[in-house]
Every structure is written in structure tokens, then in C-alpha cells.
Amino acid sequence: MAAPPRTTPAQELLDLLGPVEGFHSREEYGDFGLPARVTQEDYLAPFARASRDSHLGPLEKVHAFWFAGMSCDGCTVSVTGATAPSVESLLLATHPGLPQVVLHHPVVNLESGPNYMEAAERALKGELDAPYVIILEGSSTDETLAVPHGGYWSAQGEEPWGEGGEMRTVTIDEWIARLAPGAAAALAIGTCATWGGVPAARGNPTGAMALMDFLGKDYRSTFGLPVVNIPGCAPQGDNFTETVAAILYFLQGFGPLPEFDELGRPAWLFGETVHRTCTRGAYYEEGAFADEFGDPECLVEIGCWGPVVNCNITSRGAIRHVGGCMNTGGACIGCTMPGFPDKFTPFYKRPPGSTMSTLASRTVGALVTPLRRYTTEHLNRTPRWDRQDFVPSGWSREREEPGFIADLGHRFYDALRRSNDTSKSDAVEWGRGPNTIGDD
Ligand code: SF4
Ligand code: SF4
Predict the structure, then answer these.
(1) How far is CA 199 from CA 55, 139, 206, 207, 327, in A?
(2) Within a domain: 4
(3) Closest ligand to Cα 313
(4) What residues contact 374, with CB distance under 8 A and at least 6 apart?
């Protein structure tokens, strides 16, 4: 195994930029970017449930700095749809024992411009009134490629950190590199931030990489956590908010650190493959495969990678247990995986590794499926209908009654099923026979 690099991209960037001092002055910008004349934190304070008097643990609130690197904002969209818990409930601290989350998000906050950046500045100065976590949506990049040319890949705000105190644009990577050491936790949301994702696909002119590539293997938050990863493109919103809540309970001292796998994914959310909870799984087992999108069967032959992909969207759905790839007809393209997208392209082509298992399930299915259909037909009849040799349905039922051989098979099946029935009695047998009391 190759040794990890001696320095990290985050450290290389800080070495290039050097230390910074000095910030905006409040007098200078006044209420600029503060159209409601109030910050989001102050606006929500009267509605929040957690307070100095009501909180059950040491933390009354936690600041959450959301940064968008090489991102499409899809993670933001999906998290705003979360319901268990919802973003609103975290912001208002409606969960017993959870501290209030004071969110600093470039899209949803009331304040903007220098007033928006002020909280991050206070965090850097060590003057924030509560612990903070950092959240990255979108990949980190290699800003050392851009800095020498006077440019940048992704940025947020300006600070007087240029030569002679001149204002200069501050990149997302610089904010992350400077804030990460003091953060209570560093969370990567979405496949771009967790593994590199689409911006890091082959070619990759920006040097896009995962947050854990950027901060390095040895990164630990002030609470001792490595980077926490919640992948997906876009991720399931509840996967994120549920993980945040679990970490907050840990920070609050209410429970152990939830279980993460060796890549920092919440183990209880990403421990299973898509296939294991897929609503189309039984089609795979019976060797019934879709020829085109819109067909109800298993999608593996038109490009589904579900059997080898860690993702819970088939069981959790997209929002409120509704939607989700296969549930709505989409094949899995592996968007939660570190190998995405390069190891899954070309999309919507049959994964080569599926050939052997689909052949096996086709072979088994050729035997098992007719037997199941035969048993289902038997189970779709009441014992009374069996005895009277007649189904009183007015719904155009034109099916023939089971013949002698089919009936014999059903009787054998019933006898087999009841062979270990400890409550057996001599009461009327099931299956066809002479009419019994109650039968007309
Ligand atoms: S559609 Fe995909 S995940 Fe679902 S059963 Fe088929 S291969 Fe498995
Ligand atoms: S099923 Fe596949 S494509 Fe859909 S969200 Fe999960 S990993 Fe992504």
C-alpha cells in the first residue's frame, strides 16, 4: 500500500496563502446585505425551543457552516425536503435534548454579503458563542492551480487578506482549511464532497477531490471525529439530517458515537446494497428482466448496478418514503459510490458482472416461477370453492377449474404444509370433496 502523502492539499493551500489577520469592520458595511435588519439567528431565536433553561445537555446551540464547493446545489435542494428530522425542526430545536442548529447557508439565510460572512469570521477569531460544525456540499478543488493565475474555482465572500490589506476573494477551500481544525465535526454531503463525484471525473481540470482527500487521513475534529461522509447524487435528505441529529446527540453527551463504516459513512444507512431492499428484487430472483424502461421487471439488463451498490433509497424513498430510483423506474447508476461516475460508465448498459448471476436466476426462475404461479392459483381459491368445484365470481372469470392432476398436486401441497401442524384435527379436510355442512 502506498504511504499517504506527507502533507495535505489543505496544508499546501495554507502554506501558499500564508497566515491572515484583520477582518471587515462592522462600521464599514453597516446593514449592507441585511434587508430584514436582522440575522437569521436573531430572527428565529424567539421561536426556538432550546434555551438556557430548557436544554438537557451542555450545548444550547451549535453553529453549522454550510459551504458549496464544486456543486450543483442539489444537496441543498434534497436536504430542504428532509422530514425525519426536518431542517426546520433542527433550526427550531424541537427535538428533546438536541441543541438548536444555527445554520449559515448561502442560499437560505436572511443575511448576505459581509453580514453573512461575519459568523465565519467570528469562528476564525475564536469568538463564536458556541461550537461549530462545517458542512461541505460539492467537491474540494486544487486552488493551488488557480491562485498563481489570480483566479479561483469556487469562492465565498471577500476579506482584507490581499497584499497590503486589500480585499481579496476567499475560496471555499481556504474557508474549509482554516475552519476545519476548530470544528466540532466536518461533514461532507453528496458524492462530490464525499468522494470527488462528477467534478473529479476523468479529465478533472480543477483537481477536484473529496473533503477527506483535502483534509487528509489524519484530520480529526475537536471532538476527535474524522470526516463524516453522507454520499449520494443527490443524497437522500433524511440520510443527512438523521446523521446530523445522531452526531448532535453524541456531542450533547446523550449517547455513543453512532456507527460509521471504514469510509466514514453512517453504517446503519449504507450497510446494505440497493438490491437487497429493491422492490424489483423478486423479479431478479425469478429471472424476469426488463427489456426497456417502463417495464415492471428487474432493470439489471438495461443498466442497473443495484446488486453491488451501497445505498438505501429503495427502502427509504426520496422524500417521505415516496419515490427513489427503482421505485420510479430508474436503474441504479451507483451515484453513492466512491467509483462514481467513472467506474459506472457508460450508463444504462448492462453491468458485465451481472451475466453469470442473471443466467443462474433465469435457470432457477424457469423452474420456480411456474411452480409459484401454480401455487398462487391454488391460494386464490377458498377451501369452499375447492369443495364445490366452482368460483362464484361475477368478474368474467373464464378460467377452467383445476383438472385431476393439478388438484392432486394441490392436495399433496396442502398435506405437506400441514404435516408439521401440531394443531391438526380430524375436522373437514381442505381440498375438493363432498359438500359439507354450510356449503350450498
Ligand atoms: S432493479 Fe436493480 S436493484 Fe432492483 S432488483 Fe434489479 S438489479 Fe437489483
Ligand atoms: S439507487 Fe443507485 S442511482 Fe439511485 S440513489 Fe442509490 S446509488 Fe444513486
Answers:
(1) 41, 7, 8, 8, 28
(2) no
(3) 2
(4) 406, 409
The three-state DSSP-derived secondary structure of 198-240 is HHHCCCCCCCCECHHHHHCCCCCCCCCCCCEEECCCCCCHHHH
How confident is the prediction for the chain on average, in pLDDT? Answer: 91
Determine the distance separating the centroid of ligand 1 and the alpha carbon of 306, expressed in angstroms.
Answer: 5
The whole-model pTM stands at 0.90
CA of 284 to the centre of ligand 1 (A): 7
Determine whether the shortest distance from the Cβ of 313 to ligand 2 is under 6 A. yes
Same domain, yes or no: 276 and 368: yes
> In the listed set 270, 290, 318, which residue is the last one of a domain according to the structure?
270
pLDDT above 80: residue 110: yes
Atom 8 of ligand 2, nearest CA residue = 335
- Residue that finishes a domain, picked among 340, 358, 377: 377
Cell numbers at 355, concatenated:
451475466
Q: Which protein residues touch ligand 1 with a CB less than 6 Å away?
A: 274-275, 278, 280-281, 284, 298-300, 304, 306-307, 326, 332
Are 367 and 387 in a shared domain? no
pLDDT at site 91 = 94
Distance (angstroms) between ligand 1 centre and the Cα of 356 equals 15
Residue with cell 476579506: 159
